[in-house]
Write a structure and sequence with these properties.
- The chain is α+β, with helices and mostly antiparallel strands.
- A 6-stranded mixed beta sheet has the order 2-1-6-5-4-3.
- A hairpin with a 2-residue loop joins strand 3 and strand 4.
- Helix 1 packs antiparallel against helix 2.
- It is globular and about 45 Å long.
Amino acid sequence: MPHVHLLAAWQNNNIEKIKEIVDKNVQTNIIYDDGVEYEKGYDEFIAGIQCYLDETERLNLEWQFDVMHKTERGAANVVIIKISRGDEHYNVSDKAALCIFTFDTVGEKERKLIRAYVEKGVANN
């Protein structure tokens, strides 16, 4: 269950642990609110996560994760997660990100995030 380690690191704003979990050759597709799609490499993907971690901390918000579905394809784990933020009074953001994360074994036995598809700005309902 490598997604649990990723979400724990994310929840704790631990970018160093996130960097360990994300494969250096990660393939990402990020679709923004306006429908424009970007493919990002490792450095851009990590930088984007860091920006959101910083913003979340600055605004005194907390991450909220909804693991919607988990499945396997061969040795890979595919996980669908809705990611949003909220405050200490349980007020949640109107928008969320719907993510499909694929984890697989890289090298000898390390489970890493090898693929990420992210739809940003979806309704948080």
